[in-house]
Structures are given as structure tokens and as C-alpha cells.
């Protein structure tokens, strides 16, 4: 007979507190998540929150992670295809869908700056960087992976927060698609016309950086690899900045 692992009383209490806080957040927004309301919903004394989470910020960080579990599971389930740019599209659409379907959790995570303090937020950002790194490794980026990741992340968050600030009946469903494709035109190659053909220095610089990042090389010390990576990023990003200032012309 298979032995079942029982959770400790503290783990059960912690889960009840998270469920209570998540329910309050979903139905009443951030303002509804108070020490008194959460402790009452979980059937415990208020000091228990501080014993298990340190303070209300610790509880809110845990609630944000709690709410992102489904999102991260869906993100992982997307997997990779042979088209890393299309994978970025699918990841973008999932992000937008999650934000609009769970507005209170999304606002808690991104609207209050908890993303980098939350394990779930850091994991989501790492996953986005890995996806963009695949594009870079294939020579498909016109700037460094870090800059492209920041641009795509900031744009996605901006779209969700802007749509959440708009009454549902007034939301333009096409905004997400327009911004998504504009971001892809900005960070990836393959969208040029004859009057705006860039050099291939950025894409080659990024591809080499990602190759070194994934496998390294015995010919260079770790310190030398770090310097080379910095140079490669600077070459990639300097070209993208120059093109932006020139209105897209080399």
C-alpha cells in the first residue's frame, strides 16, 4: 500500500491563508486583502499571518505566486516549435489572456512592482528571455537578447495594464495584435524593405553571444568571455539605437 505524505499543520494553515487572500483579491481587489479579512477567512488569529509570512508584503508576494501557478504551468505546456518567432507570438497571447482573465492577480504582480521580488515573476521573465534567446541563437535578432526581452516584456505589460484600465465594453481587441507585431518588427530581422536594410552585425553578434552563453569556449577564460559578451551586446544594441535615431535608415 502506497504511503501518503501528510502536510504539517503549518502548511495547512499557510494554504488556508493563501486561499482566503486569493479569494478576497479576486472578488474585491487589492483593497479587500487586509490582515483582519484574511485571518477571518482562514479561521486563524491575525498574528499567524506574520508568523508564516513575515508581514503583509510577504503574504501578498505569496498570493501573487499562488495566482501565477496556472499561468506558469500553461507557459511551460506551450513547449517549443521549429519557429521561435511564432513561439513568441503564442507566449505573448498567453500573457495577454492571463492578464485579462485574472486582473486582480495581474495588477498585484505588475501594477505594484512585485514581479522581480516574486519567484513566479522571475521565472516568467526567465522563460521569456529563453524564448527570445532562441531567436537570437538562430540569428534572428537585430539587438541583444536582454534589450529585446525588456522591450517585449514592457510592451506586453503595458498592453495588459492599459486594457485593464479600460472598461471591458470599450476595449479594442486588436490593440494586442498590433503592438505584438510592431514589437516583433522592432526586435527581429526579416522585416526590412529595400530602403531600410540593416547590416547583419547585430544578428551575428547576438547569435555568437548566445552560442557562448550556452556552451562557452575553452579558448577564453570566464573573465574574457564576460568581456566578449559585453562587447557583443554593445555592438548589437548600438546598431539598433542608431537605426532608431535615423528613423530606420542605416
UniProtKB/TrEMBL annotation:
<dbReference type="InterPro" id="IPR009057">
    <property type="entry name" value="Homeodomain-like_sf"/>
</dbReference>
<keyword id="KW-0238">DNA-binding</keyword>
<keyword id="KW-0805">Transcription regulation</keyword>
<feature type="DNA-binding region" description="H-T-H motif">
    <location>
        <begin position="34"/>
        <end position="53"/>
    </location>
</feature>
<dbReference type="Pfam" id="PF00440">
    <property type="entry name" value="TetR_N"/>
</dbReference>
<dbReference type="InterPro" id="IPR001647">
    <property type="entry name" value="HTH_TetR"/>
</dbReference>
<protein>
    <submittedName>
        <fullName>TetR/AcrR family transcriptional regulator</fullName>
    </submittedName>
</protein>
<dbReference type="InterPro" id="IPR050109">
    <property type="entry name" value="HTH-type_TetR-like_transc_reg"/>
</dbReference>
<dbReference type="InterPro" id="IPR036271">
    <property type="entry name" value="Tet_transcr_reg_TetR-rel_C_sf"/>
</dbReference>
<keyword id="KW-0804">Transcription</keyword>
<feature type="domain" description="HTH tetR-type">
    <location>
        <begin position="11"/>
        <end position="71"/>
    </location>
</feature>
Amino acid at each position: 500500500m502506497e504511503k501518503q505524505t501528510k502536510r504539517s499543520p503549518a502548511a495547512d494553515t499557510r494554504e488556508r491563508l493563501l486561499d482566503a487572500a486569493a479569494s478576497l483579491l479576486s472578488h474585491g481587489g487589492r483593497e479587500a486583502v487586509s490582515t483582519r479579512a484574511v485571518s477571518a477567512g482562514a479561521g486563524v488569529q491575525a498574528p499567524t499571518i506574520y508568523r508564516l509570512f513575515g508581514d503583509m508584503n510577504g503574504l501578498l508576494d505569496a498570493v501573487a505566486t499562488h495566482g501565477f501557478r496556472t499561468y506558469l504551468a500553461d507557459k511551460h505546456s506551450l513547449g517549443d516549435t521549429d519557429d521561435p518567432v511564432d513561439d513568441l507570438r503564442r507566449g505573448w497571447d498567453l500573457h495577454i489572456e492571463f492578464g485579462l482573465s485574472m486582473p486582480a492577480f495581474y495588477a498585484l504582480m505588475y501594477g505594484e512592482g512585485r514581479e522581480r521580488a516574486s519567484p513566479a515573476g522571475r521565472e516568467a521573465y526567465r522563460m521569456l528571455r529563453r524564448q527570445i534567446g532562441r531567436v537570437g541563437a538562430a540569428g534572428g535578432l537585430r539587438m541583444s537578447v536582454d534589450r529585446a526581452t525588456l522591450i517585449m516584456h514592457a510592451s506586453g505589460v503595458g498592453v495588459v495594464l492599459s486594457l485593464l484600465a479600460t472598461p471591458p465594453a470599450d476595449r479594442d481587441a486588436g490593440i494586442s495584435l498590433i503592438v505584438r507585431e510592431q514589437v516583433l518588427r522592432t526586435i527581429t530581422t526579416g522585416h526590412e524593405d529595400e530602403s531600410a536594410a540593416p547590416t547583419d552585425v547585430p544578428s551575428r553578434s547576438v547569435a555568437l553571444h548566445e552560442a557562448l552563453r550556452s556552451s562557452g569556449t575553452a579558448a577564453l577564460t570566464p573573465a574574457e568571455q564576460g568581456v566578449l559578451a559585453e562587447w557583443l551586446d554593445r555592438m548589437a544594441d548600438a546598431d539598433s539605437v542608431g537605426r532608431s535615431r535615423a528613423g530606420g535608415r542605416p
